[in-house]
């Protein structure tokens, strides 16, 4: 019995050090931010937002999600009703590399390795110079299991979105359910 506490005194600090080391080195996506703008933390919980739509290209399969404020605006007809999305509207777009399902009975493309996560937030005070929207892209590195901010600030996505200025700079429609 007297050996047990001695053994535990040797094992427990080693285990604690091992767990602490992995906790310290584990990457936290919520600490990331694009230069001069959006932080990943502003979108905490995006994984549980409602689906707006999906898209598929040769390079990526995407799931487009929106927070409750944006979903409510979509359901009220935005942006086709002539009203912009309200401040606080947020959208997330998760991109995966497409791959063919090994299990489906017919050739079926499905989401494969995670590629990146993009975010948009409507904030007319912070982003007046970019159509009232801020943008962020965080690329995912499968080898290190980490995200990296991409771009040169929260307005980096604005140039691409100007072609849908008449739709409040939002490409994705809310399809019939």
From TrEMBL:
Keyword Signal appears in the UniProt entry: yes
One protein family per Pfam: Cytochrome_P460
Database matches in Gene3D superfamilies: Cytochrome P460 (3.50.70.20)
Signal peptide per UniProt: 1-25
Key words of the record: Signal
Domain Cytochrome P460: residue ranges: 44-172
InterPro entries with a match to the protein in the record: Cytochrome_P460, Cytochrome_P460_sp
Name this polypeptide is given: Cytochrome P460
């Amino acid at each position: 019995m007297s050996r047990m506490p001695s053994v535990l005194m040797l094992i427990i600090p080693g285990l604690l050090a091992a767990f602490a080391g992995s906790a310290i080195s584990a990457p936290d996506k919520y600490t990331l931010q694009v230069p001069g703008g959006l932080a990943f933390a502003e979108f905490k919980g995006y994984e549980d937002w409602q689906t707006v739509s999906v898209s598929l290209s040769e390079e990526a399969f995407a799931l487009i999600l929106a927070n409750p404020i944006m979903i409510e605006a979509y359901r009220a007809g935005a942006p086709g009703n002539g009203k912009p999305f309200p401040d606080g509207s947020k959208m997330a777009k998760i991109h995966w590399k497409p791959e063919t399902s090994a299990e489906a009975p017919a050739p079926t493309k499905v989401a494969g390795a995670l590629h990146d996560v993009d975010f948009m937030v409507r904030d007319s005070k912070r982003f007046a110079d970019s159509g009232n929207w801020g943008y962020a892209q965080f690329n995912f590195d499968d080898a290190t299991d980490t995200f990296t901010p991409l771009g040169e600030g929260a307005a980096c996505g604005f140039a691409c979105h100007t072609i849908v200025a008449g739709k409040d700079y939002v490409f994705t429609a809310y399809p019939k359910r």
